[in-house]
């Protein structure tokens, strides 16, 4: 008996149709004569899903008691005893009720598969265990029920059930997913368009990765070496030379021509590590390819064409981009080159592009760093042994006769010693001096500069060659050691610089101080000018050295673009240090640009804030002040009228109306004055922690009794707001909602918590507002009488949004499921707001 097969329908969110698709597949299999049963399917009272359950055999569920309640669960033993060919098991990530055989439903499914029963199941992308943190950051909800990714990856088939966020929200609004009393909360919380789009992207990417893994596994199992052009994969071969940037950009353009194109830049390094590639240039090219959406790969191989082709076929690439050879004409005598070899051996399924560039035929070698790489004491001792050693050894050998062969071996050992100590030059001195002494004192004819026996000539030549070879190896090893140490230091510095960027430590002065400390300079300054004829100005400076007004006055200057330079004083840096210094200079320019952009954004935000508050003030003056003024004027005119004799009760009622209108005017004028202070920056909203159930009811005084249903739980977290501004914003929202709600349909004011936010929703059942007009209804405009619905929903919304944003909140409009408009006021929970910039500044409450 073999293991059963698992098929999973994967969805981005509840309601996309996973269960419906699973039941449709079950009906198709039953029609083909397959023994298929419903082990556990939850239809959630969805009519269409319930209809699909008809005609399928159901295994009775097991009823489990837990904490005084009875819960249905899948009866695993009954399904195993029934032994169908296919079992339908919904909600793979479900947690079983305590008392079940297994803690998780996916463990029940594993037992069914082990028993040889095929299983069809469903799961949402947010229930995958590895995506828990990502889903929580998107939706603000932590998924308690999860399934290990490996369980889903081991499935024989994974089918994506996809639906656009707009279509899913329409299904939700029509009541096809949740009950009507839950629709509003679901649409405003988990089923927001942004949440659904992000979850959909996660599901599509996860399935795409699995398809790619399937293809790779199939090619490996069937030993497929030919390229399958399922999508364009362009491999860009890099040498570490400056032409790499041109090749990467060309590869990116080729990838853009095909849907789903992918760029893979690869650098082939020899296994001995003795390459002439520039680490700095490779780092720049790595950054470039990643910025263009590709990936960088580092492969080790002594046969570069073979390694490149093996890599390309391993990733199922369709094209290879190489640069024209940098070798000079005479160097082709050593072979056809990498490009020609790759093109010849690529075969018919792999296209090779040879791209010309500015470095063609300029030579492959890179500059070799000069200067001594050995310690001073070693070089001194090397010269001592190389210069004084041969005469001393000659004096010692004059006392004994060891034969010419032994004499030459001793001189050779002396030359090797000089090479090990001092490198190439002391070894050459030792070899030259030793060969002359050997010729004069020990090679017949003695004491003459001639050699009679040709064999002795060969011996002396070998002696000199061995000495030079050993010295060259020692010198090369010393250079590589120095280069490795230097590259390690450079990598540590660049890693620190990258860490600063990732941690957000982007202060210009801090960066300049780091440059000064790293290179041991007296001062560091970033200079700039607007044009070539303008004088230089200092954008930032640290250190105690002499002030530098122009780059040419500094000991070291690194240009950044055409009109910016990093200037340092203290000492002259070697050329090797300038490579890292250039990275610091580029980062300094980025920091300066970022700081200026932030300053411009702050100024633009201040201007926008001023414009927003001014429009709110105009809207309030034209709308909110008119009603009480009209009431006061009418009451005063009535009292002054001589045509009517008013009773004491009527006079008292008119006076009370005047007093009420005056109080309302005083209340509004106080708010408007505080708004004007907000505009000028002389006062900030008095933000404090308050309970919504204390403020929201106070905003309902201006609407008829019974026209509003209030649902503000006492368990909500406190919010950081200005109570006066919040009260006024809520009053405007409620008044507008009541005005446009039909008779007998009270407005619902409900509040709920979501992550670090608290939402207040004002729901009416009026005719609603088209999507195209939802932004315009917050614009301030003049309303004449009872304007039709298409002309707006009241000027008070402009005031409400201005007050909400002043408290670092938001106000948006959404459709009410079933018809109407819902205003969503989002506030930050207490403790999540930043501290005020000037806490000691006197403030007054804007109420």
From TrEMBL:
Keyword presence, Transmembrane helix: yes
UniProt keyword terms in alphabetical order: ATP-binding, Kinase, Membrane, Nucleotide-binding, Phosphoprotein, Transferase, Transmembrane, Transmembrane helix, Two-component regulatory system
Membrane topology: Multi-pass membrane protein
Cellular compartments annotated: Cell membrane; Membrane
Ranges that cross the membrane: 380-397, 409-437, 457-478
Keyword Phosphoprotein: yes
Domain Histidine kinase span(s) in chain numbering: 620-831
UniProt cross-references to CDD domains, sorted A to Z: HATPase, HisKA
InterPro entries registered for this protein in UniProt: HATPase_C_sf (IPR036890), HATPase_dom (IPR003594), His_kinase_dom (IPR005467), HisK_dim/P_dom (IPR003661), HisK_dim/P_sf (IPR036097), Histidine_kinase_KdpD (IPR052023), KdpD_sf (IPR038318), KdpD_TM (IPR025201)
GO cellular component: cytoplasm; plasma membrane
Molecular function, one GO term: phosphorelay sensor kinase activity
A UniProt-annotated Pfam family: DUF4118
Top-level EC class: transferase
Catalysed transformations (reactions): ATP + protein L-histidine = ADP + protein N-phospho-L-histidine
Cited SMART domains: HATPase_c, HisKA
Protein name: histidine kinase
């Amino acid at each position: 008996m073999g293991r059963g097969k698992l098929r999973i329908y994967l969805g981005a969110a509840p309601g996309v149709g996973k269960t419906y698709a699973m039941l449709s597949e079950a009906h198709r299999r039953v029609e083909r004569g397959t023994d298929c049963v419903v082990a556990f399917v939850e239809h959630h009272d969805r009519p269409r899903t319930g209809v699909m359950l008809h005609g399928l055999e159901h295994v009775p569920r097991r009823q489990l008691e837990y904490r005084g309640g009875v819960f249905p669960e899948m009866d695993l033993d009954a399904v195993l005893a029934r032994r169908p060919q296919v079992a339908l098991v919904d909600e793979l990530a479900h947690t079983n009720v305590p008392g079940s055989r297994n803690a998780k439903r996916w463990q029940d499914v594993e037992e069914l598969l082990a028993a040889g029963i095929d299983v069809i199941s469903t799961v949402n992308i947010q229930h995958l265990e590895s995506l828990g943190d990502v889903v929580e950051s998107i939706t603000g909800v932590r998924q308690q029920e999860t399934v290990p990714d490996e369980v889903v990856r081991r499935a024989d088939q994974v089918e994506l059930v996809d639906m656009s966020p707009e279509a899913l929200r329409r299904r939700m609004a029509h009541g096809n997913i949740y009950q009507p009393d839950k629709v509003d909360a679901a649409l405003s919380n988990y089923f927001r368009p942004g949440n659904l789009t992000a979850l959909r992207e996660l599901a599509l990417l996860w399935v795409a990765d699995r398809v790619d893994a399937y293809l790779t596994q199939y090619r490996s199992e069937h030993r497929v070496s030919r390229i399958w052009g399922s999508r364009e994969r362009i491999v860009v071969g890099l040498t570490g030379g400056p032409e790499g940037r041109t090749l990467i950009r060309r590869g990116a353009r080729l990838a853009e021509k095909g849907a789903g194109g992918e760029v893979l830049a690869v650098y082939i390094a020899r296994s001995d590590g003795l390459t002439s590639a520039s680490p700095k240039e490779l780092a720049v090219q790595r950054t470039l390819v990643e910025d263009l959406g590709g990936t960088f790969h580092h492969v080790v191989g002594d046969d570069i064409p073979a390694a490149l082709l093996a890599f390309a076929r391993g990733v199922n690439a369709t094209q290879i981009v190489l640069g024209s050879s940098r070798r000079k004409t005479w160097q082709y005598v050593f072979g056809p080159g990498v490009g020609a070899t790759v093109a010849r051996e690529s075969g018919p399924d792999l296209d090779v592009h040879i791209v010309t560039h500015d470095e063609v035929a300029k030579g492959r070698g890179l500059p070799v760093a000069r200067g001594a790489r050995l310690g001073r004491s070693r070089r001194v001792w090397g010269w001592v042994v190389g210069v004084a050693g041969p005469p001393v050894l000659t004096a010692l050998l004059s006392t004994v006769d060891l034969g010419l062969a032994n004499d030459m071996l001793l001189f050779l050992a002396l030359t090797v010693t000089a090479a090990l100590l001092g490198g190439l030059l002391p070894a050459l001195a030792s070899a030259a001096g030793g060969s002359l002494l050997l010729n004069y004192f020990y090679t017949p004819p003695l004491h003459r500069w001639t050699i009679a026996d040709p064999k002795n000539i060969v011996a002396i030549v070998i002696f000199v060659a061995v000495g030079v070879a050993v010295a060259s190896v020692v010198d090369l090893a010393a250079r590589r050691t120095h280069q490795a140490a230097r590259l390690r230091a450079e990598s540590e510095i660049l890693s620190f610089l990258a860490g600063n960027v990732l941690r957000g430590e982007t202060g210009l002065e801090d960066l300049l101080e780091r440059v000064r400390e790293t290179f041991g300079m007296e001062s560091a300054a970033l200079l700039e000018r607007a044009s070539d004829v303008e004088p230089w100005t200092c954008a930032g400076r640290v250190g105690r050295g002499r002030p530098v007004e122009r780059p040419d006055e500094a000991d070291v200057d690194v240009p950044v673009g055409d009109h910016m330079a990093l200037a340092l004083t203290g000492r002259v840096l070697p050329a090797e240090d300038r490579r890292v210094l250039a990275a610091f200079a580029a980062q300094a320019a980025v920091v300066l640009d970022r700081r200026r952009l932030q300053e411009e954004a702050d100024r633009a935000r201040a201007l926008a804030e001023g414009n927003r508050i001014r429009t709110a003030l105009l809207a309030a003056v034209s709308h909110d002040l008119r009603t009480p003024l009209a009431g006061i004027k009418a009451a005063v005119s009535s009292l002054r009228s001589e045509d009517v004799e008013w009773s004491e009760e009527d006079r008292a009622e008119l006076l009370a109306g005047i007093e009420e209108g005056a109080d309302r005017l005083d209340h509004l004028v106080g708010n408007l004055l505080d708004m004007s202070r907000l505009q000028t920056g002389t006062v900030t909203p008095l933000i404090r922690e308050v309970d919504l159930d204390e403020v929201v009811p106070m905003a309902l005084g201006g609407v008829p009794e019974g026209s509003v249903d209030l649902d503000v739980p006492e368990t909500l977290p406190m919010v950081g707001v200005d109570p006066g501004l919040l009260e006024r914003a809520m009053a405007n929202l409620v008044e507008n909602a009541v005005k446009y709600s039909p008779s007998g349909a009270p407005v619902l004011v409900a509040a709920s918590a979501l992550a670090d936010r608290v939402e207040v929703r004002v729901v009416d059942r009026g005719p609603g507002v088209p999507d195209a007009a939802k932004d315009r209804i917050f614009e301030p405009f003049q309303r004449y009488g009872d304007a039709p619905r298409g002309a707006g929903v009241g000027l008070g919304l402009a005031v409400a949004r201005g007050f909400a944003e002043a408290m670092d909140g938001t106000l948006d409009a959404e459709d009410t499921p079933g018809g109407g408009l819902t205003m969503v006021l989002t506030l930050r929970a207490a403790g999540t707001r930043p501290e005020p910039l000037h806490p000691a500044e006197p403030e007054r409450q804007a109420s």
